[in-house]
Specification:
homotrimer; 481 residues; alpha/beta; uronate isomerase, domain 2, chain A; TIM Barrel; 2 domains; four-stranded parallel sheet; three-stranded parallel sheet; 21 helices; 50% helix; globular; disordered N terminus; Uronate_isomerase (chains A, B, C); Metal_Hydrolase (chains A, B, C); isomerase (chains A, B, C); glucuronate isomerase activity (chains A, B, C)
Chain lengths: 481, 481, 481
């Protein structure tokens, strides 16, 4: 389906999707929301932060089967099934040793279909329905009865060339997408994409947690490797900073416009160089206390911001997740298995050292995300509504949802306005959900704008302009894409 | 009035209750909400957690007077009057020594009636209006002018057999109700109910705070008593655990399907048996520090969960209340006098020890409640949306209200779905408010579901199914009633 | 424009303001909201807490120019411009040394006009649009194109007598306004207002932070000065308390009905007199630790409350702002430059010492404000809904906005009702925004009340009564004005 027809398809007779979904119920507001949406629904997708696999675009192989496309890799999906007693093994989730207890995609799909009611009211349900219909043309409801039929339908599609990654990328009308790679990554898939001559714009992002966090598995070895890759004496403080600069330049060569940092807290520090160096040496010896490790991570955010002043990378801070909360699942299945839980996160004291150092820099963009919605109105909007260098990332992860996005706008706009926000991030590894997620964001934002107009808080002509900004322009501008 | 007529009565000419109350204003949504509600409004009441007095059902005596039914025992009511300067003495609230300064129900009722405007906008007002009209057929507004007339009307009703507890229980269409008793209770009222041959299903719940909390008044003496009742050597660690098992079995004999724990925090621990034993011995000597007492309480939640794996009792955690905040009122009037104040409560780190121990058990049900709404979306929904053993209790106490329930659904559904929640708890000692509270919950849930349908987030046939689940089936299933 | 015509003007053809702004979109609710609003829109303004300059009313000089009226002194406005890279110097914000880099009002105004889109969706935009139209009769949109024309229009108005402070005060229909002065202020402007014979009711409020906070700049010198002004031996504990009593009486002579306290936290203490005296002596020597300073501030709130029992001043607590967060801006521009950021604030444990001491006093009014909306439903409403002495201040500062006020009502009413709240505070130094702010509050409250009626939670006749209470009566009563 050509991009310009994505919205149209919703109005076909067989569609299961309400063409006015996520618009307010009241008629005047709904009518305006729809009018706003119609001006942005076909805009290209800017996806400045996400986790799709660059190998897909590099190799352009067919996706293996419906279960491995929609269930096994999507922690939103398998954790919900797990929460009602389905075992991760039965869903074919890979164990820590790499083995999979169930490899029959059809069996996995049947469990998913039988339990599809669990997703009622969740964004996963909206993304799945949207993907099934828009990507695969499947318009029946998923259930035990339609399990095999839907599996066969999608599996058949996947064998066809128009369902290969690059074809979908083009059909999704993605103007630019960022993947995320470790600082130690050789970016070979990005090299292969470039070498292939394919025109799709896939850029990387610099994710240095493995060489910034003293508590990361194998930190010292990672620094050794960093030194080798960069050709710098990375075990000295000066060499370590130089190695970062080198890697950032390398990532920039592959289109990177941002770095990304997933620390447990939003803590920043601005230590003296000698203090930082001492902590770094301690970290290399594995001798940092938890407090010292936290201070070092915090200081490195300020170092990253200083490097951003030179090389222009946007600095993204994604704090506040208690990773791998489930001890037994961590042991048996490893990291990232749906048990990352948000925690209370403070920004006011945490960001002060970084902001005191570089917060007034007009050329710098620090984008802060949160998993603690209480910080939107109380901390993040007042900070972003004052410091030139600070912007607010969109509603993130558990809040990448209709209610989450609505609360984000309601809580941040009055203090930070629209122009201290940066448009939408899909932040996903679920490739087929990308158009669905952007569609949800565009609908929710248009609903919000329509409400402002109808309640006399925004002029109608302004709403059309802001709708375009939120759907397209701000992401492109903030991420320099 | 027969249960099937409760909803009908709202449409009589003389009713003061808006038949569409709590439904969204917009017509299409309201129409659907009403249609949903009409399929659940007459369903039997499952009341799996509450504080009605089993003696009422055992003795089936008339309630003494309107003030002692509606005011004196209801902390929602008398604390609001107190907040505007009415003294607890003038309301006949019993003092710590058992005396009551005012015993004239009519005088108390007049104060209440003169101050009825204070309840505008509160759920108490909705419950009272509903009770007056549906239970007593009183349809005028309560005010200074109608104080005596309303008092006489209700007092007259109370003399009649159809207003005795069992008759009301049947009229309210209660299929099952749980009371809550201390682990040390002999359950004689439950025995008397059983002996009477009455068919009403009244079950108990196991509340062991007095023998689990080292800071509870008379902890050591309570353990002595626990030993006597259970016939176990309860002052040894092994005997103590055996005594719990014995009492749980006894409570199960009287229908208990749950235990309930009202700790200051949600802290859990999973200590070694020798560590737990050492703390227990210290607690018996009254030698625990505050930190040690907290750790012991936390550990006992995990022990309770392990016992639940054997005996099937559902484990309810009700944390986060700062009890008896008002020093002078505690001194003069004792506990539970409307000055229990919610506090910030953490769940992520607090529940980890218990969840690491038993969180993946499919046969276990741990139901977590909160008085800190910030934890809904940030902590509880992500936890319950992943761990098989964890479910979310409904909006509780101060949030047992239209806005509170709406916020609960909006904050939890997107991450935890509907099926990690457990239906409604009325959690009340105000007997006449029970139908009103369930009616509010059913209306608010139907309003929420209608909104999801009208905004394209749920199919209409699904909404009807979920409405039934939330009003009836989930409570019955989750509490095994 | 005469006050009674303020609302009318919105309906003229040339008005840019939606006459139904802030009312719900649904027709029945909107119609009722409008009906409610029409009964309160022309009520006199009670402004019991604010920061207008008494010198304006004393001297009654013309305001200098549009930029110095609307931009330079308004931290809401200049911090938003700053957040998008406009320098404070270019806006003529005074530096710490008193100098202003830009003094050309027209140049400043052009920057403001070019960036007017930044205010989309913010309350500042509503206040500005309302002020421009209602106060100055300017009905075009502010933009780069209209920058000079609007500047000239407003500048011209300012030369005319009907735009002098007293004329505006009368046109705004202000029945009473409170300013805020330091305990050390001689109140000469208030004296001059009184001496002038002008009938406008301008009262002061007692703000003793400079002589209560051991960490305040020049604390010991301030105490010296306090002693001189009051004629008490203020460096002794007894003399210090006597000096406060003396100053409070002096402020009462100039109409004060309240004291106001802007501490970092809501902490209160009720120390013994000897403990308090020891801390005081330490504070005079500059020897208090941060913890001791905090304890002393906390104790002084309880002392102020005790004095209030004698002299009847209402005690206002405004905690939770991290003042002057931006180090470089504090150094270059000084305090109050838009970088005060809210922080998490606890009330339950913090207020207990004060409430244990005086919370049951019916004659006392303690009004608590918050910058942490999570405390509304969890802490403040339960406390105010129980303690006779405690009331809730309205949505404050960043929350003096449509969404902020709506969240305040939704979060507090169900537990505290309407009558434990105190009407609206504009809390502003932006004189022309006063009618706009009260108008927003009246509209939002009427919208909320209309919603309650349409959803069956409040009777229509009650809504009209409550609308009047919230717009006028409660502020007058709570602040004894």
């Amino acid at each position: 389906m050509a991009p310009e027809n994505l919205a149209r398809a919703q109005q076909t007779d067989q569609s299961r999707l309400n063409p006015d979904r996520l618009f307010p119920a009241e008629l005047a507001t709904r009518t305006l929301a729809r009018a706003l949406y119609e001006t942005v629904c076909d805009l290209p997708i800017i996806s400045p932060h996400g986790h799709t696999d660059p190998r897909w675009y590099a190799e352009n192989e067919a996706f293996p089967d419906p279960a491995q496309l929609f269930i096994t890799p999507d922690h939103y999906v398998f954790r919900m099934l797990c929460s009602q007693g389905v075992s991760l093994d039965d869903l074919g989730v890979p164990r820590a040793d790499g083995s999979r207890k169930e490899t029959d995609g059809r069996k996995i799909w049947r469990i998913f279909a039988e339990n599809f009611h669990l997703f009622r009211g969740t964004p996963s349900r909206m993304w799945l329905d949207h993907s099934f219909e828009h990507v695969f043309g499947w318009t029946k409801k998923i259930s035990a009865e339609t399990a095999d039929e839907s599996y066969d339908h999608i599996a058949d599609c996947l064998t066809r060339p128009e369902f290969r990654p690059r074809a979908l990328f083009e059909r999704f009308n993605i103007e630019a997408i960022a993947t995320t790679e470790s600082a130690l990554d050789d970016l070979k898939w990005h090299q292969q994409i470039r070498d292939s001559g394919w025109s799709g714009k896939v850029v990387t992002a610099y994710r240095p947690d493995a060489v910034i966090d003293p508590e990361f598995e194998g930190f010292a070895a990672n620094i050794e490797q960093l030194g080798e890759i960069s050709g710098e004496a990375a075990t000295t403080w000066a060499g370590y900073l130089a190695a970062h600069r080198d890697r950032r330049a390398y990532f920039k060569d592959f289109g990177a416009t941002s770095s990304d940092h997933g620390h447990p807290t939003a803590r920043t520090e601005n230590l003296s160089q000698s203090e930082a160096e001492a902590l770094f040496q301690k970290a290399l010896k594995g001798a940092c206390s938890a407090e010292e490790a936290d201070a070092f991570r915090g200081h490195m955010l300020t170092e990253m911001a200083r490097m951003s002043l030179d090389d222009g990378l946007v600095l993204q801070i994604h704090p506040g997740s208690f990773r791998n909360h489930n001890g037994p699942v961590l042991t048996d299945f490893g990291r990232d298995k749906g048990f990352d839980i948000p925690t209370r996160t403070d920004y006011v004291r945490a960001l002060k050292p970084l902001l005191d150092a570089v917060g007034m820099e007009k050329g710098l963009s620090v984008i802060a995300f949160t998993l603690d919605e209480t910080s939107y109105a109380r901390e993040l909007a007042p900070l972003a509504g004052a410091y030139p260098a600070l912007r607010l990332g969109p509603a993130w992860w558990f809040y990448d949802s209709p209610e989450g996005m609505r609360r984000f706008r309601e809580a941040t706009t009055e203090t930070a306005g629209f122009y201290n926000t940066v448009g939408f991030n899909d932040d996903t590894r679920a490739f087929c959900s990308i158009p669905a997620r952007h569609d949800v964001a565009r609908r929710v934002d248009c609903a919000y704008l329509a409400t402002l107009v109808i309640t006399g808080r925004l002029d109608e002509d302004e709403a059309f302009e802001v709708a375009h900004d939120l759907a397209y322009r701000l992401a492109k501008q903030a991420y320099r894409l």
